[in-house]
Design brief:
This protein is mainly alpha-helical and about 325 residues long. It has 16 helices and ten strands. The chain is elongated and about 105 Å long.
Length: about 325
Amino acid sequence: MDSGKINNLIKFCLTDLPGRQKEVVEGRYGLNGAAALTLAELGDRYGLTRERVRQIESIALKAIAAKTKSADFSNFLKNVSVVLRGAGGIKREDFLMEEVGGASLTNKVKFLLEVSGQIGRSGESNSLYPFWYLGEGDRKKAESFINNLVKSSNRDNFAAGFSAAAKQAGISEAVARSYASVSKKIALNVYGDLGLSEWEEINPKTSRDWAYLVLRKEKKPMHFTELAEAITRLRNKPTHAPTVHNELIKDDKFVLVGKGTYTLQEFGVNPGTARELIVHYLQKHGPLKANDVVKMVLQERIFKENTVLINLQNRKHFKRLEDGRYTTLA
């Protein structure tokens, strides 16, 4: 929206107000470029009681309200309504402010919306960011969608659950995303994936969380130094390789698949040494040829082929049958 038109509307609203009334409104809503002030702060500035400042503000706002019937003001509200309708009738406050006038005009846009009294605002709570809405029906529909989504969320397939929740609510996925952005319980991670903010892959805090996120997203084994470099890029903050390595060692969900190289156990990778993996496959499949054992082990580990063969020839644990297959002595 044209910033010049917004500034002209502010000027139009304040025109004809007595000096003190204009100063109080400008100070209360931060219309002069400074931060908005409390009644007490304005009282201290002008040597007035808090109640007297409130009275001056009230008188000024009544005079301004009479000007909201103008054609320019009506056009402003229509433009904001179009933005809100495109988002399903509600929009998170910071996103709405950015789209309507840009961050620099946030205080002015909020002021114009408040004095109009035609568009609702819900303040910040423990679970929701502040947002603006066209009607109670829109607000209730958004909050119902958010509650249902949070309750039914599945971290293994959040995207499918999100689509299903949007379909059930009868809204597009674009509107569903607008609704979801209002909730503090739902967030986007650095890869742009939606999920619950309590999940470590959505809102990582420790180096271990970040390592989990990177491995889960990349879906491939990574050396701890490579992981540290990736985390540093994503966080835009130095992350030291030894710190990452120490975190990986402590947690069973990370599996060492080679010298300093890790993957996630949730990918179906079996933990253990080369010998333990050989035992696992021989017990699972029965006697196997050496090349079959090597193939299976190397699918999960970054070992040299000789490492597997040397372990397989250990007569304390494995036996070579007459047909050349190997079996376990365990």
